[in-house]
Amino acid sequence: MIKKNDGFALVLTMLFALLALTLTGALMFIVLQGSKISGSSKRYSSIMDAARGAVAIAKSFIVSGNTTPAFGTVQNVACTTAKISQTTYDPDNTYQWSTCDSYTDYNSNVCTVLNATSADPKVCPDFISDLGEYRVYTKLADAKYIITNHTYNLTTVSIYAENPTLLRESVQMIFLFSLIVD
After folding, report:
1. Cβ distance 143 to 62 under 8 Å?
2. Is 34 inside a domain boundary?
3. What is the number of structural domains in the chain?
């Protein structure tokens, strides 16, 4: 039997202090992770709003038939005019967007048939918009007529939105816009 209990209170106090420190550290970790998730969610929501804004701009651009969008810098007016007024290929499968070939875009890419019709909006975009802290690239990638009891113009629009200062903060969307022609 141990007759002396000297130091037992000190050891017990040290154990309780260690337990309290561990719980406090775990609580701080959980709070920091929640804060990171909250910030990521807010950034995602903001960039999605910028991309949705670009969708609205592209829709207005297609419906109005203007050669310049409401917001943004057009890369090649002749190309965007061709994309609004013509299908990509005629019924004989002849490429109709010849004005979209052989121009240089904002990033020194030479635009050709292949990249003028690709779905990548950062290569030969039709227009670039700065919406708040976000830069949005919009590209009309394809246009077709579908003829049933009405004639529909189907335009494939590709959008890429990014925060230039934080490149991991980006979103890309592709959508099909249908417009009744007659």
Report:
1. no
2. yes
3. 1
CA distance 63 to 97: 19
**Any domain includes 1:** no
Going residue by residue through the chain (182 aa), what tens digit of pLDDT does each one get? 556 667 778 888 999 999 999 999 999 999 999 888 887 788 888 889 889 888 888 888 888 776 677 778 888 888 888 888 888 888 888 888 888 887 888 888 788 877 777 888 988 888 898 888 899 999 988 888 888 888 888 889 999 999 988 877 889 999 888 888 77
| In a domain? residue 120 | yes
Half-sphere exposure of 152 (CA within 13 A, CB side): 10
- Domain containing residue 108: 8-180
Residue type, 67: T
CA–CA gap between residue 51 and residue 109 (Å, rounded): 23
Cα 9 from Cα 140, distance rounded (Å)? 76
| Chain position carrying tokens 């004989």 | 92
The model carries a pTM of 0.76
Helix, strand, coil percent content, the chain, rounded in steps of 5: 40, 30, 30
Look up tokens 């109005």; give the residue: 64
Task: List the beta bridge partners of residue 173.
Answer: 159
